[in-house]
From TrEMBL:
Gene3D superfamilies: Gp5 N-terminal domain. Residues 12-61 form the Gp5/Type VI secretion system Vgr protein OB-fold domain. Keywords: Secreted. It is found in: Secreted. The keyword Secreted applies. This is Type VI secretion system secreted protein VgrG. It comes from Atopomonas hussainii. Residues 253-263, 271-286 have a biased composition (Polar residues). Belongs to the VgrG protein family. The keyword Iron does not apply. Its main location: secreted. SUPFAM superfamilies: gp5 N-terminal domain-like, Phage fibre proteins. Residues 78-185 form the Gp5/Type VI secretion system Vgr C-terminal trimerisation domain.
Length: 286
């Protein structure tokens, strides 16, 4: 650190001794930490007035290092904004806007954003939700999935759609189902296929058709062959691709307790003091 009054300083890492940094919360492996960057102006105090016990208590904006957003125009914003290092040209930001009618929480990650939630996550959105993924999306649900859509659902897949079901698939439609394929529909079953209709069932191709209804069975075609040669058509068969597995989120280590909780009961304090004395450990004053 380079002091303003230190004319002999070289403005490098050897100009002063290493300084401790005051923060709002500091535990053993946990707390809040935001290190000053090179070039920042800091506020320094000295423990017991000793210059050899310097302590950084905060950072200061000034004319060369301006605030992230102009003031007083953005006086209702609370901001935590970083700068990519080294070189800049990027940032992470948490911004809270409290202007009446324009309240907003804005979060920007310059590169990756990882979340680890050890139990439940609950999200409520009062109006609309818009999600845009510029590349691939990977989702894995290791339990059940329950989803309810109250209004119409519109889904568009602009390339191929692959679905693999490990056991049974049940679909119930209240009114009609309409499927249209540009080239081929192939239904294949390892055991049986049952098509059932309450009043009418029709197979139609190239001007010929078979119709089953309450009046009977109708076969219409230029030529009807029964046990007179020919071969069945062949379908392409189903070849669904399996999805890729998602990448797990980043993790972090838990902090450590700095000390045991204080003993509040007078009797327990005496008992704890006697226990420390017998064990040879130094006594702690209450």
């Amino acid at each position: 650190m380079q002091f303003h009054w230190d004319r002999a300083g070289q403005a490098d890492e050897h100009t002063s001794c290493w300084l401790r940094l005051a923060t709002g919360w500091a535990g053993d492996g946990y707390g809040a930490l935001s290190l000053p960057r090179i070039g920042m102006e800091v506020l320094v105090t000295f423990l017991e007035g000793d210059p050899d016990q310097s302590l950084i208590t905060g950072c200061l904006y000034q004319k060369e290092h301006v605030v992230p957003y102009d003031l007083p125009a953005n006086k209702t914003r609370s901001v935590f904004k970083t700068l990519s290092s080294p070189g800049g040209a990027g940032y992470n930001e948490l911004r809270i806007e409290d202007k009446k009618g324009q309240e907003q929480i804005y979060l920007h990650a310059q590169r990756d954003w990882d979340e680890n939630i050890e139990h439940d996550q609950k999200i409520r959105i009062g109006h609309e939700r818009h999600d845009t993924v510029e590349a691939n999306c990977h989702t894995e649900i290791r339990g059940e999935e329950h989803r309810t859509t109250v209004q119409p659902r519109k889904t568009e897949v602009k390339a191929s759609d692959h679905l693999t079901v490990g056991n049974n698939q049940h679909i119930k439609i209240g009114s009609g189902q309409f499927i249209q394929a540009g080239q081929e529909i192939h239904l294949s079953s390892g055991h049986k296929v049952v098509l059932e209709a309450g009043s009418e069932l029709t197979f139609k191709a190239a001007g010929s058709f078979i119709k089953l209804d309450a009046s009977g069975i109708t076969l219409i075609g230029p030529l009807i062959k029964i046990n007179s040669g020919g071969s069945p058509g062949k379908g392409s068969g189903a070849k669904p691709l399996l999805p890729k597995q998602p990448t797990p989120a980043d993790t972090a280590l838990t902090g450590q307790l700095t000390d045991t909780a204080p003993i509040n009961s007078p009797a327990k304090r005496v008992q704890a003091t006697n226990t420390r004395s017998q064990s040879g450990a130094p006594s702690k004053q209450s």
